[in-house]
Please model this.
Amino acid sequence: GAVVSQHPSRVICKSGTSVKIECRSLDFQATTMFWYRQFPKKSLMLMATSNEGSKATYEQGVEKDKFLINHASLTLSTLTVTSAHPEDSSFYICSASRETYNEQFFGPGTRLTVL
Amino acid sequence: GESVGLHLPTLSVQEGDNSIINCAYSNSASDYFIWYKQESGKGPQFIIDIRSNMDKRQGQRVTVLLNKTVKHLSLQIAATQPGDSAVYFCAETKAAGNKLTFGGGTRVLVKP
Model:
């Protein structure tokens, strides 16, 4: 149990286009989902926390107009990288947690490459 | 700001030996700690956790030690296997909220 999926696993796009990444909790209801960014050989950096039905809370330095997060249901959150540029190329990872539990269940990640 | 850090970026270990990965944390308010394993191109995988009211917790081939006095966390892997080769991250959080702060990561390389 507690499986989180991400789609797509890899995406290559041209500079200036927008890319949407989906994060789904497959066998549980996730009231909270988290989005992380990871550069090569670096640690995970939290971008934002999203709760179902409310606006996401962004970490300092993360542009909310650049990284649009939607958590429309208890099993789905989406991250849209708008007007992507090469510096947005990274590994994006989501996680989900059940209410009242600390444990986060991580997705497999999405590799974004912006040309 | 406060952060979680690691002493060793890379650890090479002979297959069959024990591995010890260390982590220093600075947020004294953290009361829940987790170790994750991340293989190349994949998301983090939960290994073991420990709450601040404990100083040791054991799992299958893994043991986590918590020393709150010096704000130190360690992960011990017994009889390290080639499949243990990965990057290991410690993470901390508070019980009241579940936002995780990750350490810098340690790469474990298991030599046959």
